[in-house]
Design goal:
Elements: E1 4-12, E2 21-29, H1 32-47, E3 54-61
Antiparallel strand pairs: 1-2, 1-3
Amino acid sequence: MTVKHYRVKGEIMKKKFFEPLTFNKLIAASKEEHAVEQILKEMGSRHRAKRHQITIQSVEIEQTEE
């Protein structure tokens, strides 16, 4: 399997934040679904956010020079 790099953008909305916390993260994964799952796990763990509090706005394949 080939590993692709995905640029995932989104936001986290929690009650203790006065405005949404935005993120822009580069993730290495084999499929787009795996990249989204990795973001949900990482952001949920780091910010103690539930999955329904995390909104994924876009997932794009990052072009890398090889």
